[in-house]
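Entry 14. Structure prediction run on the chain below.
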Amino acid sequence: MTAIHDALSIPGLETVYDALATAIDQAGVEKSELFLVKLALLNANSLADPAVFADHIARALKNL
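Output returned:
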């Protein structure tokens, strides 16, 4: 399985993290889960590779 896109830099990851945190706050407690599912599906569609998305799920579940 190879990466489709180049990895983000640390500043890029910080920008994404800040945008995600702000969006979760905007969605509110009641809608944050729905927002995250919608975001995940949009990103899965952008990846266009179910195996890569499944790998991302497994990696995100580690060390929770």
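Residues 40 and 53 are 9 Å apart (CA to CA).
Filed with the rest of this week's runs.
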